[in-house]
Specification:
alpha+beta, two-stranded antiparallel sheet, two-stranded antiparallel ribbon
Length: about 90
């Protein structure tokens, strides 16, 4: 919920799995959130920003965590490279 100034005033904002868009419950102790550093494509130096990826325990339990994480990073990398060429 947001107030009139546009700030979040909720006590708990649930996370969503980046691969399945499922809500990650507070009691899902097998879920992970991984921050991947953004890299400048020209210099190859980290910019200081990071892109968070959240994987639910359901995906990790099915042994698809590596597949999902790799696909998400490659998809984001291709989008960032396409955006920098314009």
């Amino acid at each position: 919920m947001q107030n009139e100034a546009g700030e979040n005033v909720d006590l708990y904002v649930p996370r969503k799995c980046s691969w399945t868009n499922r809500l990650v419950r507070a009691k899902d102790h097998s879920s992970v959130q991984i921050n991947v550093a953004n890299v400048d494509p020209v210099t190859g130096i980290a910019t200081g920003d990071a892109t968070p990826y959240c994987l639910a325990g359901y995906i990790r339990f099915k042994s698809e965590g590596d597949l999902a994480f790799t696909a998400l990073v490659q998809k984001n990398d291709a989008a960032m490279l396409a955006g920098s060429e314009e």
